TrEMBL record:
Keyword Ribosomal protein applies: no
Xref: Pfam families: Fe-ADH_2 (PF13685)
Molecular-function GO term, any one: glycerol-1-phosphate dehydrogenase [NAD(P)+] activity
Keywords: Cytoplasm, Lipid biosynthesis, Lipid metabolism, Metal-binding, NAD, NADP, Oxidoreductase, Phospholipid biosynthesis, Phospholipid metabolism
EC class (word): oxidoreductase
Signal sequence interval, chain numbering: none
Keyword Nucleus assigned: no
Enzyme Commission number(s) of this protein: 1.1.1.261
Protein's name according to its UniProt entry: Sn-glycerol-1-phosphate dehydrogenase
Domain of life: Bacteria
């Protein structure tokens, strides 16, 4: 059965209604977006872009909508002093000022951050938004969560999923390789997130759903199979990656929590992101950090946690060791990441911050992972 058919079968089984409909991943999806808008009672549409995504897709979309007789308005999000567009209070207020009562619908034209800003504003003004990803860079396009930085602290608000999603493969394939590699990195992180999820059910009865597990694993496997095609920007590789990211997002929505897609590797990545924010450093791509964290966590589990578990041979510990042994070796993960265009300079985290995050990052979320188990059960140390 094809992956997408499995997704549909599982959604039916779990009585899960997709809020985002249609979801179009194809060549020419931009035309499908214009046709979709033409069929809705929409007159004024606000395209939210940044300077890069305006060139990549916004300009063409603006033109096509005008040809259809619609009245698009383009709002360009501005970068901060470091050159980053950030989902923070300033960017949100800038967009709110631009939105007037005549706007019927917003379109997020871009990658993760633009989606977070539009998702938040769209929910506040109670107008729908359409997702138009310009890079296969992250697994949150079709989710409800909007991580927003307020007064320097990042909080995820549960808001709205897009009403429809149109991802044009020819646009995605032209995205910077760092963004494509970041999307692949976000998916590679599922090796350890799925291991942590299984471990969490053994250690602390974290909730579990076998179908959602299988769905996320199938999305990960499909990415791994296409690693080289992804790195070469071949359309079948880009399509596999985009679909995998959307399936991962759908899996989280079906489950109602982020367990399938986020484990200790994401906790490390969040810790690094917060440190970079505090130190006013230029941000790294989410998936680039997750890739680096996946390598570090896999190595930590295979070398440190495994040895510590083997000091006693209880049933629980034997099962946890088996879970760790099923993880691929860091060298294998590293090879896949390189094939897909990722290299360590895309996440140049220094050794001191890595060590600090291995000690402290598990405090960031109330979630059982093998990293937390190691610190709180196997190797308890007073808090540093
Ligand atoms: Zn992620």
């Amino acid at each position: 059965m094809k992956l997408i058919e499995r997704v549909e079968a599982i959604m039916q089984e779990q009585a899960f209604e997709q809020e985002t409909h249609p979801v179009v991943v194809s060549n020419g999806a931009l035309d499908a977006l214009v046709d979709y808008v033409g069929d809705q009672p929409i007159m004024t549409i606000l395209l939210v872009v940044d300077e890069h995504t305006f060139t990549a897709a916004g300009k063409e979309l603006d033109l096509k909508l005008k040809q259809k007789g619609l009245k698009p308005i383009v709002h360009c999000l501005l970068p901060n002093d470091l050159g980053d567009v950030i989902a923070d209070e300033q960017t949100i207020v800038d967009l709110l000022i631009q939105v007037n009562t005549h706007v019927d619908c917003l379109v997020a034209v871009g990658s993760g951050t633009i989606h977070d800003v539009v998702r938040f504003v769209s929910a506040k003004i109670e107008k729908p938004f359409i997702s138009c990803p310009t890079a296969p860079s992250v697994d949150g396009f079709n989710s409800k969560g909007a991580p927003i930085i307020v007064k320097g602290v990042k909080t995820t608000y549960q808001t709205l999923a897009p009403v429809a999603l149109f991802a044009d493969l020819s646009i995605l394939a032209q995205a910077p390789i760092e963004l494509i590699a970041a999307g692949f990195g976000d998916m590679i992180g599922k090796y350890t997130s799925l291991t942590d999820w299984q471990a969490g059910t053994l250690i602390a009865d974290e909730p579990f759903n076998q179908e959602v597990y299988q769905l996320t694993k199938a999305a990960l496997d499909s990415c791994v199979e296409h690693a080289e095609a992804i790195g070469n920007r071949e359309l079948n590789g880009i399509e596999a990656l985009m679909n995998a990211l959307l399936i991962s997002g759908t899996a989280m929505s079906i489950f109602g929590a982020s367990h399938p897609a986020s484990g200790a590797e994401h906790h490390l990545s969040h810790y690094w992101e917060m440190t970079y924010l505090e130190e006013n450093k230029k941000q790294l791509f989410h998936g680039a950090k997750v890739a680096r964290a996946s390598l570090i966590i896999t190595q930590f589990y295979k070398e440190i946690v495994r040895a510590s578990l083997l000091e006693e041979s209880t049933q629980e510990r034997i099962e946890l060791v088996e879970l760790i042994d099923q993880l691929p070796d860091p060298a294998e993960i590293s090879k896949l990441l390189r094939l897909a265009g990722w290299h360590q300079e895309q996440a140049p985290i220094d050794e001191e911050l890595i060590q600090l995050s291995l000690l402290k990052a598990y405090h960031l979320r109330d979630r059982w992972t093998l990293l937390r188990y190691y610190h709180e059960t196997l190797h308890w140390l007073p808090d540093l």
